[in-house]
Amino acid sequence: MSAYESSTRTTNTIVHFSASFTLPDLVGEIHPAGDYKIVQDEEPIEGLSRIAYRRVGTFIHLPSIAEGSRLRRIVRIEPALLHHLLETTNATGELSS
C-alpha cells in the first residue's frame, strides 16, 4: 500500500455570484446572488514521478453563506457547469483547476 493510496485532498473555496442562478438538477429552485462555499475533492494519481491529483468530486453548499439557514445541503456539481455559472454571473473567487 502506497503512502498516498487512501489520502484525499479537499479544497474549500468561497465564490461570490453577482447574479442569481439555477442548477439543472434542482428544478424550480433559484439561488440568489451571494457567497457560496465550493468544495473540491481530489485523489493522488499513482505511478508518477511527482505528486499529482485528479478531481473526484465538486460540491456546492446551499443556501448561500449569508442566509445562515439551519437547513443546509451539499450538492454535487459538474466542474464545467460550475465554471459556466461563474462566467455568466460575473462571479468572483478563484477555483483551483
**Percent of sequence in beta strands:** 35-45%
Rg, alpha carbons: 15 Å
Mean pLDDT: 86
Which strands sit side by side, in order, in the main sheet?
Answer: 1-2-3-4
Which consecutive residue ranges, at least 5 long each, have pLDDT under 50?
A: none
Q: What is the 3D shape?
A: elongated
- The count of β-strands is 4
Main sheet summary: 4 strands, antiparallel
* SSE sequence, one letter per element: EEEEH
Distance between the first and last residues' Cα = 28 Å
Helix content: 10-25%
Q: Which structural category do the helix and sheet elements fall into?
A: mainly beta
Kindly list the characteristics that best describe this protein.
97 residues; mainly beta; four-stranded antiparallel β-sheet; 1 helix; 4 strands; 10% helix; elongated
Describe this structure in words.
This protein has one helix spanning 79-88, and strands at 9-17, 34-44, 53-62, 73-76. It has 97 residues and is mostly beta strands. It has a 4-stranded antiparallel β-sheet with strand order 1-2-3-4, with helices on one face. The chain is elongated. The model has no long low-confidence stretch (mean pLDDT 86).
Layout of secondary structure:
Elements: E1 9-17, E2 34-44, E3 53-62, E4 73-76, H1 79-88
Antiparallel strand pairs: 1-2, 2-3, 3-4
Give a short synopsis of this structure:
This protein has about 100 residues and is mainly beta. It contains one helix and four strands.
